Amino acid sequence: MLKRIFNPWNLIINNCRIFGRNERKLFQVEIVNNKIEKIRLLRKPLAKKITNNNILDLAGSMLYPGFNDSHTHFMWMGLKLISLNFEGTVSAEDVYSRLKEYIKKVPPGSAIIGEGYDETKWKAEGNILKSELDKISPKNPVVLRRVCGHKGIANTEALKRIPSTWKIVNRDSGELFEDAVLYIRKLFPPTEDELDSGLKEAIKLAKKEGVTSITDVVNKDYFKTYQRYFAKNKNPEIRVSLYFTYENINEVISTGLEAGFGNEYMKVRGIKLFTDGSIGAYTAAINQNFLGKKTNGVLIFQTPKLKELILKADRNNLQLMIHAIGDRAIDQVLSIFKSIDFNRELRHRLEHIELISDRQIIEMKKLDLIASMQPNFVGEWSHPDEMYSQRLPLEYFMRNNNFAKVIKAGLPLALGSDCMPFGPWYGIESAVNHPIIGSEISFRQAVKAYTEGSAFAEHEEKNKGKIKEGYLADLIYKCDS
Ligand SMILES: [Zn+2]
Asked: How far, in Å, is the centroid of ligand 1 from the Cα of 315?
């Protein structure tokens, strides 16, 4: 079992081995005021005597720095964890009965958004009926979304609140399609209570996975949730770096927020931008057509507009987190950075870069940019006959997520999960067992990128990511009980 040590006031850890430091030897680590005060090499194991709670004996287990997930949607994940979920339902009746159970806990009038039903997996044919939803929930608006997210069904209370201007809403059957269901949260945003309990659930999962720091992308509501949480909790159990979605850039600038504002638990870092879509949706921008399609993806911004946004963030001391998956999107970003004078100290970062070319890796290095990658994608999509091979021309398939080349080029690499799913172990395992020979990295390199590398990306390399004197005491280890 994995145990996490987060920010203890005083603690002595005896008989541990230390990741990255003469790993055959045993050490004693002394923690004072939440920081690693002293690391002592032990000539022989110390006798196991636990006199009080401030001494921990690891009996030779390895101590690692706490994992630092450099790309999450932590709040979003938390909301998903607490939401009504229909995965695994086998019939419409099954959906109704889960809804009936759930509605008991919900105050009258507040909206219920359920996710994940899939009628193609049901045993018998059937449909969710608006009339049944009305019977179960006469007072609360209810919207149930299909597993794909592009189709849903609403009850009468929900339909009342859906503006008549919204298209693709069938008011008789309650069926919703595309934008009407994709953006339903705009009409029924999560309540403060839901946001607060969502964050708590996400932190619970972080504790279980050995994650002590995360980076999240926030809007106003998410940002306020973090502020409420950290104001209330003296030992908050997590450290966060936050990037606002670019829709908020003007407000962030006008309030004077800059990269690094915050405290040891919560820091504002900058702005998150998208430049293309995803491989799964054929919208990542690449330089050839996708397999069997007449499209080479989508660039979200015209170059002048993107340049303006990049300059705006950079000039206002905000670090950029730029989503760019295909080489065409990456080229668009690199051409902008090559054409402007920018603050390299900010360490602007490119997210995903799943299909980066060799040349682009070298260019990123020259521009002092950071590679923020998610090895989970390899585990999910990179094996033969999985999504990458079905969508991508061979040349592109062969270059997906080449962590080895990024490290070899000396480009700083930060690893994260993108919450797909959340947790470092699946990603580390996927990076180590990359199915394309030559793209894999060692366990040691993967752990380093998930700790030191992520700390560097959030400008915390002097506080986090290593077990070293003066560093924060955010640590993990494995134990039997
Ligand atoms: Zn993401």
From this structure: 25
CA of 44 to the centre of ligand 1 (A): 47
Distance (angstroms) between ligand 1 centre and the Cα of 25 equals 39
ω into 45 cis (within 30 of 0): no
**Shortest CA distance to 240 belongs to which of 389, 60, 460, 417?**
460
Q: Which tokens hold the place of 295?
A: 């499209």
CATH of span 111-187 = 3.10.310.70
In the chain, which segments carry CATH 3.20.20.140? 192-457
Tokens 């934008």 belong to 179
CA neighbor of 91 nearest in space, from 72, 117, 68, 65: 117
Ligand 1 center to residue 409 CA distance, Å?
Answer: 24
Query: For 177-227, what is each residue's pLDDT tens digit?
Result: 877 888 888 899 999 999 999 999 999 999 999 999 999 999 999 999 999
Identity at 249, one-letter amino acid code: I
Residue 10: pLDDT over 70: yes
Token representation of residue 360: 């682009």
Instruction: Write out the residue limits of the CATH 3.10.310.70 domain(s) in the chain.
Output: 111-187
Ligand 1 centroid vs 7 CA: distance in angstroms?
27
* Amino acid letter, residue 162: I
At the topology level of CATH, where does 192-457 sit?
TIM Barrel (3.20.20)
Dist. CA 161 → ligand 1 center (Å): 30
Q: State the Cα–Cα distance between residues 381 and 390, nearest whole angstrom.
A: 10
pLDDT at residue 120 in the model:
81
Output the CA 352–ligand 1 centroid distance in Å. 8
Tell how far the Cα of 418 is from the centroid of ligand 1, in angstroms.
Answer: 5
Class of domain 2-65 (CATH, top level): mainly beta
Count how many Cα atoms sit within 13 Å of the Cα of residue 113 in the half-sphere of its side chain: 22
